[in-house]
Structure formats: structure tokens, C-alpha cells
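Notebook, bench 3.
Goal today: get a predicted structure for Keratin, type I cytoskeletal 14 from Dryobates pubescens so we can plan the truncation constructs. The sequence was checked against the plasmid map this morning, with no discrepancies at the termini. Length recorded as 222 residues. Pasting the sequence as submitted so the record is complete.
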Amino acid sequence: MSCLRKQSTGDVSVEVNACPGPDLRQILEDLRCQYETLIARNRKEVEDWYECKIEEVNREVITSGQEVETCNNQVTELRRQLQALEIDLQAQLSQRNNLESSLAETECQYNNLLGELQTQITCVEQQLAEIRAEIECQNQEYKTLLDVKCRLEQEIQTYRCLLEGGQQDLIHGGGIGVGSGVGGGVIRTSHTYTTTTTSHCQPQVPPCKTGDIQVTCRRICD
């Protein structure tokens, strides 16, 4: 080991022949210039972009401010319109309540008036019914009186015929007196006329006919 150590402790000289290397300073300077140029360009681009963005943001802010102001004006106008509509609504509701109250009063008045008119109509209808019944009774009585008149005319015609026939008998008989008992006789007739009116006002006397009067007169005259 000691021998090896003694051998390894000798001086060694090495000579290297090499070409000159690149200038690192120049390279570093070039890189620094390139990076500075790149940084300047990037800074310029960033500044331009920032300015553009700032301008856009400012424009947007201005536009947004105008829109906000417009919206605020619209909200104010809408609130004013809402208040006006609420006032109008309250007025309309009040008018509707007044009209409903007036309508209820009018309906009540007309219902009362209609009830009174209905009562009057009922009374008038009853009176008309009574008047019609009375007129019907009067018509029946009138018919009865007409029958009585007709029978009286029959009797008058009969007496007239008897008188004419008696005068002719006196003329032809030569002075025969009435009531002497010979050649003549006294004709006594009695007639009773009764007029009865039932609950339905129906006449009890049968109607007379002209033919009966003529036949009776002819028989008496004969």
C-alpha cells in the first residue's frame, strides 16, 4: 500500500489544446436585449389592453349610469302612475259603493211602490169583479123587465082585441049591455107578474114571442 501511495504522489501536468469558446457576455447581452424588448412589447400591449379595457369599463359605467338613471326615472314615473291609479281606484270604489247604495234604495222604493200598485190592482180587480157581477145581475133584471114588458104588451094587445071585439058585438047585437047576463058576458082576467132574482140573477119568467101574441089575439077576436 505504501508503495502505491508513493507512486501516486508524483506531479502530473496536462496540456490541452482547445479553440477559443463563444463570448458568453455577448450572448448574455443579446439575451438581455431580447428579453427587454419582449418585456417592453408585452408591457406596451398590456398597457394598451388595460387602457382599452378601462375605456370600455368607463363607457359601460357611463352607459350603466344612464340606464340606472333611466330606470330610476321610469320607477318614479311608474310609482306616480301607481299612486294615481290607486287614487282613481279608490274614487271608483267609492262611486260604486254610492251607486250600489242608491240602487238598493231605489229598488226598495220601487218594491214598495210595486207592492202598493199590486194592492191597488187587486182592489181594482175585486171592484171590477163586483161591478161585472152587478152588471150581470142588472142585465138579468133588465131581461126580466123586458119579459114583463113583453107580457104587458101582450095583455094590452089582448085587451085591445077584446075591446075591438066587444064593440063589434055591441054594434052587431043591437044594444046588448055588458053584464046583463044575456047575449054577453063579462070577461074578467087576472094576471100576476112576479119577478124573482136568484143568487145568480136568472129570470124566472119565460120570454114572450110575437107569434104567441098574434095567435092569442086571433083566438080572442074569433
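Residues 30-175+202-221 form one domain. The chain has a mean pLDDT of 77.
Flagging this for group meeting.
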